[in-house]
TrEMBL record:
Species of provenance: Phytohabitans flavus
GO cellular component terms, A-Z: cytoplasm
Cofactor(s) for this UniProt protein: pantetheine 4'-phosphate
Residue ranges of the TM segments: none
GO molecular function, one term: catalytic activity
GO BP field: amino acid activation for nonribosomal peptide biosynthetic process; lipid biosynthetic process; secondary metabolite biosynthetic process
Keywords: Phosphopantetheine, Phosphoprotein
Domain Carrier: 314-388
InterPro entries with a match to the protein in the record: ACP-like_sf, AMP-bd_C, AMP-bd_C_sf, AMP-dep_synth/lig_dom, ANL_N_sf, CAT-like_dom_sf, Condensation_dom, PKS_PP-bd
Keyword rRNA processing: no
Coiled coil: none
Record protein name field: Carrier domain-containing protein
Length: 722
C-alpha cells in the first residue's frame, strides 16, 4: 500500500514495470535508469536475479534505497546487494496483507549474520506469543501477532476463518483485536524481531516437530549460501528432511559436511537435513516467490564429498554394498560410503531396528547389538554372517504352562489354540487396573480422522477379521486369578465387530469425537473376555469419517497400534497384504524369551550386580509455604519446556562424538541431574525398553517394564564433561 500512496504524499512519480517485466533483469535495470528511480521494491528472489545484471552502480546513480519484503532476506543476498549498490540503503520489511502489508522494518548493515525483520512501524504493536497465548521471552520463538489501526476487518464472507485469525487482544485496551499471522518469530535483545518461518509449514519427522523455515534461516547464515529452501521427502515408509542451497559462488559450492557442521552448532540434531543439495537456482512461482512444491526430488548438482564432508569411499564387498544399500533406504540418503557412521548419518534406535530387519530379509544373520558395536558400513559388514538364523524347534501349544494349568485351560476352552503365562508387564497393568477401580487405567482410546474414502463399514469389518486371524493377541483373554498362575489364552475365534456411529448432525465434529472418546473410556473391559478391542467407524459432516480403536494396553503397545491401524486402513482403502509376506512374529516367543531370562543364572547374576548395594536416594521435595503437609506426597506435576537451540545442538554433537544415540546422552543428563539432587553420584533410574522383534510389524505389548540403569562411574567420561 505504501508504494502507491508515498509518492503522492511527497510529489514523486510512481513507475510501474510492464507485465512480466520483473522477470527480465536487463529490462528492469534499463527502466530504473531511464526513469531515474530513487526507490525500488523487490521480492528477495527477484532481487537475486536482478543483481546478476552487470554495472548496476554506474547505471543507477539516482537509486537511494532498495526495499525487500515478501520472503526471508538472506545475509548473503543482503551483502551482495550492498556490494553491488553501495550508494543505496537496503531495508528489509515484513507484513501480511491482513495488516495493510508492512508492519516492521530493518535497516540492513553489511556483514550481518542474520537479517531481522526489524521493529514495528508507527501505530503498530507486535507480540510474540507462545502456544498458550503468553508473551514469549526474548530469544524464544513464538507466533507473531499484530495489533494496531491497520488491521483488516476480516475475510470477506468467511466468518469462521475471521474468528480464527482475528481474535481479541488480551494485552490491549478493551475491544482491541489481534491478528494471528501464523508466522514464527522471536525478539532479539535489541528490540527487533527475527523471522523463523511458518507455523503451518511445520511437519513431524520421527515424532519431532520440524519447522523448515527455521532450518532455512540457519542455512542462510552460512557465508557460502546465497539462497536456501528445505522440504520433506518420502524415504521408504517414513520421511526425511532435504535442504537445497544456491551457492554464493557457483564454482565453489559448500560441502554438505561443512553445512551440516554449521547447522549442528545452531539447531537440534533432528533439524539437520539428512540430505543437502546444491542447486543452480530455486524454482519460483509466477509472482516471484519460492515454489516449494517444484523443488527437485533428486540433486541437481553433485556437491562432491559424501554427507560427512569427507572423501567418499565406495563399498567394496557384497556385504558392504548390502549394508550401504539398506542404510540408504532407511536413512533416506542418496549414497552411503564404507566409512560412514550410522548414527553420524542420522540413524537412531528406531531406524536401527529397520536396518536389522532388512538385512535379515536379505539373508544375513544380525543382532541389534551388533549395529551399536559396529557403527560404520565396513565394520558392520565384516561382522555379518550369511545364511538363515539357527533353526528353532517348532512351538508346541500350551508347552509354556505347567501340565496342570494347561489341562485346566483346555478343559475350560476346548477350542483354545494356545495359552501361556502373562508377562510381568501385563500382570502389572492388570493389577493397576484393578487397583484403580474405574477400569480407565491402561484403557486406551485412539481416533484417526479419515478423508476421501468411501463409507464402507463392511470392507473395514473384513480388514479387521483378517487382522484378528493374523495377530493372535487380538483373540487373547487375560486371566490373573483363574488358575494357579496368571495366564493368557489364545482363542480360535474372537470376533471384533465394527460399530457405526453417526455424527453428521453434530455442530462440532471434533467436540463430538472427544465426547465419544471420554464416554468410551468409561466403558471398561473385562480382561477375561476376548477380544479386548473395540472398533468404531464414525460418519462426520462433509463426508468425512473417523476410526476409533479402543483397547486394553495389555494387548497392544504404541507401535502395535500403529501397525494395526495401518493394516486396517490399507484394507479399508482396498489394499491387501503383499503375497509371500513373512510370517508375523508370535507374541508367545516373546513370552518364552522372558521366561528363559527369568530362569537364567547368567541374567540373574547380571542384574544382581547392577542392583546390589544400590543407593536409595531421595529427591528433595518443596514444603508448602505454611509448613503443613511435610512428608506427604501430593499430586505429581509435569513441567514441559523446550530446550534452547544451542543446548540441543550441543547434545546432538555430544551424541555424535560419543557415537551413541541422542537418547543415551539424555539418559546420562538425567542421571547426572538426579545425582546432583540426591547428593550421591551413584544413582539408579528406570529406563523403559522394547523387546519388539525387528523382522516385521507384530501386535502385542512388547515393551519391557522399566529396567534399572545405574551410573556410579564418577562422571569422568566425555558425556560427563559435556
Amino acid at each position: 500500500m505504501w508504494e502507491l500512496f508515498w509518492p503522492l504524499r511527497i510529489g514523486a512519480a510512481l513507475v510501474i514495470a510492464e507485465p512480466g517485466g520483473h522477470r527480465d533483469p536487463g529490462y528492469l535495470a534499463g527502466l530504473l535508469a531511464d526513469e531515474r528511480v530513487t526507490t525500488v521494491h523487490f521480492v528477495p528472489s527477484m532481487l537475486d536475479s536482478f543483481l546478476d545484471e552487470p554495472g548496476l552502480a554506474e547505471r543507477l546513480p539516482a537509486l537511494r534505497r532498495v526495499v525487500c519484503s515478501g520472503e526471508a532476506l538472506s545475509p548473503a543476498l543482503a551483502d551482495r546487494c550492498q556490494a553491488a549498490l553501495p550508494h543505496a540503503g537496503l531495508h528489509n520489511l515484513y507484513g501480511p496483507t491482513e495488516a495493510a502489508v508492512d508492519v516492521s522494518w530493518h535497516a540492513c548493515r553489511p556483514g550481518e549474520p542474520r537479517v531481522p525483520i526489524g521493529a514495528p512501524i508507527t501505530n503498530t504493536e507486535l507480540r510474540v506469543l507462545d502456544q498458550h497465548g503468553r508473551p514469549a521471552p526474548i530469544g524464544v520463538p513464538g507466533e507473531l501477532c499484530i495489533a494496531g489501526v491497520q488491521l483488516a476487518n476480516g475475510y470477506l464472507k468467511r466468518p469462521a476463518l475471521t474468528a480464527e485469525r482475528f481474535v481479541p487482544d488480551p494485552y490491549g485496551p478493551p475491544g482491541s483485536r489481534l491478528y494471528r499471522t501464523g508466522d514464527l518469530a522471536r525478539w532479539l535483545p535489541d528490540g527487533e524481531l527475527e523471522y523463523h518461518g511458518r507455523l503451518d509449514d511445520q511437519v513431524k519427522i520421527r515424532g519431532m516437530r520440524v519447522e523448515p523455515g527455521e532450518i532455512e534461516t540457519a542455512l542462510l547464515g552460512h557465508p557460502a549460501v546465497r539462497a536456501a529452501a528445505v522440504t520433506v521427502l518420502a524415504a521408504g515408509a517414513g520421511h526425511t528432511l532435504a535442504g537445497y542451497v544456491v551457492p554464493a559462488d557457483p564454482d565453489d559450492p559448500p560441502a554438505p559436511g561443512a553445512l551440516r557442521e554449521h547447522l549442528a552448532r545452531q539447531l537440534p540434531a533432528h533439524l539437520v537435513p539428512a540430505v543437502l543439495h546444491a542447486v543452480a537456482e530455486l524454482p519460483l512461482t509466477s509472482s516471484g516467490k519460492l515454489d516449494r512444491a517444484a523443488l527437485p526430488s533428486v540433486p541437481v548438482l553433485d556437491t562432491g564429498p559424501d554427507e560427512s564432508g569427507t572423501q567418499f569411499v565406495a563399498p567394496a564387498t557384497a556385504a558392504e554394498r548390502a549394508v550401504a544399500g539398506v542404510w540408504e533406504s532407511v536413512l533416506g540418503l542418496e549414497r552411503v560410503g564404507a566409512a560412514d557412521d550410522f548414527f553420524g548419518a542420522g540413524g537412531d534406535s528406531i531406524r536401527a531396528l529397520k536396518v536389522v530387519a532388512r538385512l535379515r530379509d536379505a539373508g544375513y544373520r544380525l543382532e541389534l547389538a551388533q549395529l551399536f558395536e559396529h557403527q560404520t558400513v565396513r565394520e558392520l559388514a565384516a561382522a555379518l554372517a550369511e545364511g538363515p538364523a539357527a533353526d528353532t524347534a517348532p512351538a508346541v501349544p500350551f508347552d509354556l504352562l505347567g501340565s496342570a494349568v494347561a489341562d485346566a485351560v483346555r478343559s475350560r476352552w476346548p477350542s483354545a489354540v494356545d495359552a501361556y503365562p502373562l508377562t510381568a508387564l501385563q500382570t502389572g497393568m492388570l493389577f493397576a487396573n484393578e487397583l484403580d477401580g474405574s477400569g480407565a487405567t491402561y484403557h486406551d482410546v485412539f481416533t484417526l480422522r479419515l478423508a476421501g474414502a468411501a463409507y464402507r463399514p463392511d470392507v473395514l469389518a473384513r480388514a479387521l477379521a483378517r487382522a484378528a486371524a493374523v495377530h493372535p493377541i487380538l483373540r487373547t483373554s487375560l486371566h490373573v486369578g483363574d488358575f494357579d498362575e496368571p495366564v493368557q489364552v489364545v482363542h480360535a475365534e474372537a470376533t471384533v465387530t465394527v460399530s457405526e456411529v453417526d455424527h453428521r448432525a453434530a455442530a462440532d465434529a471434533t467436540a463430538a469425537l472427544a465426547a465419544f472418546e471420554e464416554s468410551e473410556k468409561r466403558h471398561r473391559f473385562d480382561p477375561a473376555a476376548a477380544p479386548l478391542l473395540r472398533v468404531f467407524l464414525h460418519r462426520l459432516p462433509d463426508d468425512e469419517q473417523a476410526l476409533t480403536l479402543s483397547f486394553h494396553h495389555a494387548i497392544l503397545d504404541g507401535w502395535s497400534v500403529a501397525t494395526l491401524a495401518t493394516e486396517l486402513l490399507r484394507g479399508y482403502a482396498g489394499g491387501s497384504e503383499p503375497a509371500g509376506a513373512a510370517p508375523v512374529p508370535a507374541y508367545r516367543d516373546f513370552v518364552a524369551e522372558e521366561l528363559a531370562r527369568r530362569s537364567s543364572a547368567e541374567s540373574e547374576g547380571f542384574w544382581r550386580e547392577v542392583v546390589t548395594d544400590a543407593p536409595g536416594g531421595r529427591l528433595p521435595r518443596l514444603a508448602p509455604a505454611d509448613g503443613a503437609g511435610i512428608g506427604i506426597v501430593g499430586a505429581v506435576g509435569v513441567l514441559r519446556t523446550e530446550v534452547d537451540a544451542g543446548v540441543a545442538a550441543a547434545l546432538g554433537q555430544a551424541a555424535r562424538t560419543s557415537r551413541v544415540p541422542l537418547r543415551t546422552v539424555l539418559l546420562a543428563a538425567h542421571l547426572r541431574a538426579t545425582a546432583l539432587l540426591t547428593g550421591d553420584p551413584d544413582v539408579v533410574t528406570g529406563v523403559v525398553t522394547s523387546s519388539r522383534p525387528g523382522t516385521r510389524p507384530a501386535s502385542g505389548c512388547w515393551a519391557c517394564s522399566s529396567t534399572p540403569s545405574r551410573s556410579g562411574y564418577g562422571w569422568t567420561g566425555p558425556v560427563g564433561r559435556s
